Amino acid sequence: MSIWRDIWKEAVSANQKMVLAKDSSANSFAPLLEKYSNDGMVFYEMGEAYETLELDDAAIKNYKKAQELFPVPHWKDVAGFAINRIERNSTHFDSAGYGKFYKLQWDSFHTMHTFANLLDECRYLGISALSRIDSEASSEIVHFRTAMEVELNFLFPDLISSLGKNFCLREALEKLKIEGVDWEIMRDMDNVREEGNLSAHENDHNEKYLSRTINSFINVMKFFNDCSV
Fold first, then answer.
1. Most buried of 10, 87, 92, 194 (most Cβ within 10 A)?
2. Which residues contact 93 (CB under 8 A, 6 or more apart)?
3. What's the CA angle centered on 187, arms 181 and 188, to 5 degrees?
């Protein structure tokens, strides 16, 4: 893992701690700010935490700082989109001209940040995958499937252990269905499972296909997040 991804992973963990503690002082970010005071991702993740806590002024302040520090234009745009999202939600007017898929990708990226009850490993995997779904679709859809499997193992250990060491994910989902999990969630889980399998062998993903897969993944992660409350 590259150094910047190590820093990002630490920042995502600090974000999670801040949201769970409802800590407007951002104490969980103090060690990172001391070590990486000029890293845009630290401020970006602080902005995400403030936005989740509905402290919009503090969120915008940190997104702007991130935008200033990011060396890569792509991430400057992401920070700008986050600022626009807050303004869009408060004014019900979007003048930035972002494309439909771009909005879905980065709104989903933010939504994944709000799922603070997920396992840290799963949450980071989902956030990272959403950040690259437009450029590395095949590998990141596989990561969607992996994140789902990690949470299934954690939330339903008895069910998983009953299937034996070499269990099939399809079998696990069939058992969940029998236990009465909502059919729409089961449909989304099966979609994430199937697309994860197919993506290991396919590289041609259009925006309509990706949009459906992203929506299914977010619905599944929301279900897991709510199960963990």
1. 10
2. none
3. 100
Which two three-digit tokens encode residue 95?
């003048």
Beta strand ranges found along the chain (DSSP E): none
From CA 162, how far away is CA 167, in angstroms rounded? 9
| Inter-residue contact 154 to 119 (CB < 8 Å) | yes
What pLDDT was estimated at residue 54?
96
Which parts of the chain register pLDDT below 70?
Answer: 1-2, 90-97, 203-204
Sign for the pseudo-dihedral over CA of 12, 18, 24, 29: negative
213 in Cβ contact with 199 (< 8 Å): no
Q: How many degrees, rounded to 5, is the angle at CA 14 between CA 9 and CA 16?
A: 95
Distance CA 137, CA 202 (A): 10
Burial class (CB in 10 A: 0-12, 13-18, 19+), 117: middle
Q: What are 211-229's pLDDT values in tens digits?
A: 999 999 999 999 999 998 7
Task: Kindly state the tokens that stand for 96.
Answer: 């930035």
Report whether 213 contacts 106 (CB < 8 A): no
* Whole-number Å distance between alpha carbons of 1 and 52: 27
